[in-house]
């Protein structure tokens, strides 16, 4: 599924990521790696396979589109250091042709040393490329001629069936000047959004991106 924003074409992927072919760039947000082990360490019974699925999907994406750059728009790692961070380093060392970059979010609390030794390029709280600003946090003050793409809110859309069934699905959401990416991490919640009539909304269901 493709969407055009500010005369640029982006491909929306069912793996909860965006492919910007012109820039050879893969965009995703809210990976929350390490969250499963963080909860298990606290005594919360979380199935470990949720973590495996994140890595399987990430590797699948890299092999599918072969990007030169991967930009995580905040919340790459969920918590303080735990062993899962070593898997991040293993990943970046396995794909040396890939520039792995991070726009920091509220969960990105590791020391700069940890990011450096894992070959991750930090951009602080915002990265502007052409007419696009990538910021983990939504912004209230928009720069003229600049479109902001964010994460943080884990957008979801509620759909209703004829039998009054209701289901909440992760989605891509693009307003007039602000867009939101779905949370990449499998073990994350959803925040219901209230789109305006002119907004563009794309739900993810059964490994398919559907325009709503």
Strand-helix topology:
Layout: E1 2-5, E2 8-13, E3 17-20, E4 25-28, H1 35-41, H2 49-65, E5 69-73, H3 84-94, E6 99-103, H4 112-117, E7 120-122, E8 127-129, E9 132-134, E10 147-150, E11 155-160, E12 166-174, E13 178-180, E14 191-192, E15 200-205, E16 208-211
Parallel strand pairs: 4-5, 5-6, 6-7, 9-10, 10-13, 11-14
Antiparallel strand pairs: 1-2, 2-3, 3-4, 8-9, 11-12, 12-13, 12-15, 15-16
Question: How far apart are the first and last residues' alpha carbons, in Å?
Answer: 12 Å
Compute the CA-based radius of gyration.
17 Å
Class derived from helix and strand content = alpha/beta
Query: Biggest sheet, in brief?
Result: 9 strands, mixed
Number of domains: 1
Number of H- or I-type helical stretches: 4
CATH topology: Purple Acid Phosphatase, chain A, domain 2
One letter per element, helices H and strands E, the order comes to EEEEHHEHEHEEEEEEEEEE
How much beta, percentage-wise?
Answer: 25-35%
CATH architecture: 4-Layer Sandwich
- Average predicted local confidence, pLDDT: 86
Q: Which spans have pLDDT < 50 for at least 5 consecutive residues? A: none
How many strands in all?
16
CATH C-level name:
Alpha Beta
Shape: globular
């Amino acid at each position: 599924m493709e969407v055009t924003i500010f005369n640029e074409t982006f491909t929306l992927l069912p793996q909860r990521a965006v492919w910007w072919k012109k820039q050879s760039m893969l965009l995703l947000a809210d990976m929350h790696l390490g969250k499963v082990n963080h909860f298990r360490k606290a005594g919360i019974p979380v199935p470990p396979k949720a973590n495996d699925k994140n890595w399987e999907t990430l590797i699948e994406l890299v092999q599918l589109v072969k990007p030169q750059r991967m930009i995580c728009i905040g919340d790459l790692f969920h918590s303080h250091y735990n062993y899962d961070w070593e898997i991040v380093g293993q990943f970046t060392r396995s794909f040396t042709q890939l520039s792995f970059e991070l726009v920091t979010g509220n969960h990105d609390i590791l020391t700069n040393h940890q990011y450096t030794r894992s070959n991750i390029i930090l951009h602080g709280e915002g990265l502007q490329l052409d007419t696009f600003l990538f910021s983990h946090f939504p912004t209230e003050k928009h720069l003229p001629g600049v479109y902001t793409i964010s994460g943080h809110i884990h957008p979801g859309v509620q759909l209703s069936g004829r039998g009054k069934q209701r289901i909440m699905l992760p989605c891509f959401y693009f307003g007039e000047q602000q867009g939101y990416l779905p949370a990449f991490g499998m073990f994350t919640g959803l925040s219901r959004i209230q789109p305006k009539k002119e907004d563009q909304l794309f739900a993810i269901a059964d490994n398919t991106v559907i325009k709503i």
